[in-house]
């Protein structure tokens, strides 16, 4: 089972 | 005062066709560097980063950094009214709440002005650090588009695996499974037809196919596409825009629970 990752999990706010 | 004159106006038309279904509203940022955009889709799974460098414009005047909020669907509607051979000029006065698109036919016998309302958009820029990727695959953009389209008729997700053997695109669905392997192939007539695989480490990641199919709307912008993959990082799907810059799509992978 897998879930969709979100971009904020990888990149910090600029 | 902002005035950007793009002789190859079709590029801007193609850019809008490539992003309008992924992102509804976005801020275009204009600076001495160029005309750029960074925006996420509404679910914050995919991000588009566009750069059209100032040197690529025939005339580029941007007195101060300016951010212009636009509805991309409306902008695409306006740009559809420009001919493919038209020269497109973007104009905005300081503090104005409108942007003007001017379309000139190559023979200068038809000149059109379209004025579009700007909007206030809360921009959520993400810092994207430079990364060393485990694998970088360059392939013909039409081939990548074909693979994404074919696989999405079988399943909803794609596993992209890069090994010494090549790059493998796999999916599974109710009716069965599909695997497409592309091997490195540099013995082609034209460099843009080559598949080139640079691998530092094997990598395997799972993504939602529907986003890839959205990214492939950028295919008319470039003959080649580059996929940069690292475990635990969003994939970067890059289409270079000749002599001007790039359009990059970032897509967060599926994560094993």
Characterization of the model:
The complex is a heterodimer of chains A (14) and B (257). Chain A is an all-beta fold and 14 residues long. Chain A has no helices and 2 strands. Chain A starts with a strand and ends with a strand. The mean pLDDT of chain A is 92. Chain B has 257 residues and is mainly beta. Chain B has 4 helices and 20 strands. Chain B has a 9-stranded antiparallel sheet with strand order 6-2-3-4-19-18-17-11-15. In chain B, strands 5-1-7-8-9 form a 5-stranded antiparallel sheet, with helices on one face. A 4-stranded antiparallel sheet of chain B has the order 14-13-12-16. In chain B, helix 1 runs antiparallel to helix 2 and helix 3 packs antiparallel against helix 4 (209-215). The model of chain B has no long low-confidence stretch (mean pLDDT 96).
Give the helices and strands, then pairings:
The complex is a heterodimer of chains A (14) and B (257).
Chain A lengths: L1 E3 L7 E2 L1
Chain B lengths: L1 E5 L3 H10 L5 E6 L3 E7 L5 E8 L5 E4 L3 E6 H8 L7 E6 L5 E7 L6 E7 L8 E2 L7 E6 H12 L4 E7 L2 E8 L2 E7 L13 E4 L3 E6 H7 L8 E6 L5 E7 L3 E7 L2 E3 L1
Antiparallel strand pairs in B: 1-5, 1-7, 2-3, 2-6, 3-4, 4-19, 7-8, 8-9, 11-15, 11-17, 12-13, 12-16, 13-14, 17-18, 18-19
Helical fraction of chain B equals: 10-25%
Form type of chain A: rod-shaped
User: How many β-strands of chain A, per DSSP?
Assistant: 2
Total number of helices of chain B: 4
Question: How much helix, percentage-wise, in residues of chain A?
Answer: under 10%
Largest sheet of chain A: none
How many DSSP H or I helices of chain A?
Answer: 0
Distance between the termini of chain B: 51 Å
- Rg of chain A (CA only): 9 Å
List keywords for this structure.
heterodimer; A: 14 residues; mainly beta; rod-shaped; B: 257 residues; 9-stranded antiparallel beta sheet; 4 helices; 20 strands
């Amino acid at each position: 089972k897998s879930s969709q990752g979100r971009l904020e999990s990888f990149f910090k706010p600029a | 005062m902002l005035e950007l004159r793009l002789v190859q106006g079709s590029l801007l038309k193609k850019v809008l066709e490539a992003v309008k279904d992924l992102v509804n509203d976005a801020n275009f940022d204009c600076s001495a560097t160029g005309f750029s955009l960074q925006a996420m889709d509404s679910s914050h799974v995919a991000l588009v980063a566009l750069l059209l460098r100032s040197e690529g414009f025939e005339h580029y005047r941007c007195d101060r950094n300016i951010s212009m909020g636009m509805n991309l669907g409306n902008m695409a509607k306006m740009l559809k009214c420009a001919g493919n051979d038209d020269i497109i000029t973007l104009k905005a006065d300081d503090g104005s709440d409108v942007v003007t698109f001017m379309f000139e036919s190559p023979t200068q016998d038809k000149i059109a002005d379209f004025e579009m309302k700007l909007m206030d958009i809360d921009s959520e820029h993400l810092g994207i650090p430079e990364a060393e990727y485990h694998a970088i695959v360059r392939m013909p953009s039409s081939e990548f588009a074909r693979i994404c389209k074919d696989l999405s008729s079988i399943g909803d997700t794609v596993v992209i695996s890069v090994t010494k053997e090549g790059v493998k695109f796999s999916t599974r669905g109710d009716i069965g499974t599909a695997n497409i392997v592309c091997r490195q192939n540099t013995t082609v007539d034209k460099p843009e037809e080559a598949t080139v695989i640079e691998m530092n480490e094997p990598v395997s990641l799972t993504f939602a196919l529907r986003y890839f199919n959205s990214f492939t709307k950028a295919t008319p912008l470039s003959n080649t596409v580059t996929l940069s993959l690292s475990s635990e990082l969003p994939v970067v799907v890059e289409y270079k825009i000749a002599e001007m810059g790039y359009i990059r799509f970032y897509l967060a992978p599926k994560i094993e629970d």
